[in-house]
Amino acid sequence: MTFIGIDIGTTRTKALLYRPGSPSRRIVASATPTVSTHLGDFRDAEAVFATVVDCISMLLADLRPAERAEIEGIGLTSLSEEVVLVTSSGITAGPMPAWYTSVAKAQALDAGIDPSFSWTKLSWAFEQLSSARSPSFTEHAVAAIKQVTTLNSYVAGRLAGIDRYPVDESHASRSGFFDVRSGQWQRAIFEQTGWKAELLPELVVPGSVVSTVDPGLAAQWGLPPAARVVLAGHDHFCGAFGNGVREDGQLYISAGTSEAHCLIVSELPKFPLPPTVGVGRFVDGTHFYLHRQLASGHLYRQWTGLLGIDDEDSRSQEDQKLFAEPIGSRGTTIIPGFDGDTSSSVLNVKAGSSPHTVLRALLEGLACAALHIDRELVTFTNRPIERIIASGIPCQSPFWQHLRGHVTAAPLYITDEEEAPALGAALLCQRATAGAATIGTDCITSSHATTTDASLEADYDKLFSRFERELARTATPSNRVIR
Question: Which residue numbers delimit the Carbohydrate kinase FGGY C-terminal domain (predicted)?
Answer without folding.
Answer: 251-432
